[in-house]
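debug: dumping io for the single-chain case to check the tokenizer round-trip. Nothing else runs in this session.
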Amino acid sequence: MKTDTTGGRPVNAHAGDALKAAALRLVRLNGYDSVSITAITKEAGVARQTLYNRWNTKADLVLDAVFEETQDYAAPPREDDPRSARDLIEEFLIGVFSHLTANGDILRALIAAAQLDASFQTTFYSKFVHPRERMITELLDRAKKQGELATDRDPDLVSSLIHGAFWYRLLNRGTLDAAFAKAITADIFN
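debug: decoded output
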């Protein structure tokens, strides 16, 4: 996200929230490809330049809106959380899959945008994909140290397998539900 460093008019904090809300509302209603920057700014009641003062592209705006929304369920657990790593991973996957069931079309569109724009691909990976990969890998490391995960399991590889399973289903419009989250978790820890 950009910040105004020009010394011009002060940035309206509410405009950013309005733009994110408008973008999500319109993309959910009409589909990512059918929504223009003009439509988003009109819906938010702000000038086009206001959007470009904060985001480089529509994809950047939509990603920030989705990312903000996912913080409710995809935040890393506290260090002192007493639950097992298995329980934390299962809870995380159930939350992610629930979100993807409701917002899969948006994520598929952002993945497509990332394939067409190298700069956005870097942003998408660093802001959205990598933090979740790191969180799962750290939970798997914790599980291994606490004896929940077999000592011969490689947390990096297992994390890749987890992510591969759900990205594959997401991209192919497969079922992403609590049962799948529980099946993945059971397979990892059995």
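debug: round-trip ok. Residues 114 and 122 are 8 Å apart (CA to CA).
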